[in-house]
Amino acid sequence: MIATDALTGQIKAAPRALPADNFSNGFYGQDILSVKQFNRDNLNYIYRVADEMRSLVKRFGKANLLDGKILANLFYEPSTRTSSSFQAAMLRLGGRCISINEVRYSSVTKGESLPDTIRTMESYCDLTVLRHPEKGAAELAARYARKPLINAGDGVGEHPTQALLDIYTIEDDLGRLDGLKVAMMGDLKYGRTVHSLTRLLSLYNTQFYFVSPEQLQMPDEILDEVRASGHPFEVLRDVQPIIGEIDVLYVTRVQKERFEDPTEYEKLKDFYIVDQALMAQAKADMILMHPLPRVYEIAMEVDDDPRAAYFRQMENGMYIRMALLAAVLGKA
Ligand code: NCD
Fold it and tell me: Is any atom of ligand 1 closer than 6 Å to the C-beta of 159?
């Protein structure tokens, strides 16, 4: 466990919006802590760089844009895709990584605080990627860091790079981002990916549907933001009334690790299951998304449906992370 007193300190500043400069579209040397830092212009910039990264990988497999740079991958929570796609992104751009995925083998188990661990890693590396179970941990860490830091998930807070790859996938699959009807279904309370995705989709003309059991409803903080930004939204218990009209169905796993009471998790874990019968009622061009890992919520029989976009999301994650790394380290 890390020393909690380092985490309970007031978080002073909200993440700064990315400055508008003419170099790397404002990303150079910046932290990526929240999707609140993005606007339509700099998102589009990242998406176009990600397009280039995709063709670069397909044609050559690698480039040496980040030759000599080192990334610190610091994960205090389990991860398969986020951690390995950041590593693969760095390696494909010619950089190297130091990964601490097993914090139990690091000095964290000796009681080292998050700020001290960050200071250590950045004295060896050029950029830190941090995943941590506490909401606000990335902002706290960034206050101590002198080098750029990327939030790879802070508890129930945000997961900005996941939302970037989600929206990139929507644009790629549907060819547009405005005028879409987007339903999010599952654990909207603890699922950080839907918190970031809702905020980011609020930059576009989106009709939202939030489908969850009452206990796992989207937090008021996010609903208030959606309300304030003037986007129409509905809170529902069942996807049935809207399944035939939505363009995107984004499903999340019930976040077992966030429950204090395991019996409550057991009650809710298979509240929704997407199967072929449900997909048969959806539009022919609806896409079914999931940040993965999926557990019970999407039946494997759906995987071969061309509308299942989750494996495309997973691959796109590497291109988006390549684009971000290149932009933040200044060579995009
Ligand atoms: C998500 C996460 O860690 O928040 N996974 C991911 O990064 N793709 C979703 C989840 O764990 O359910």
Answer: yes
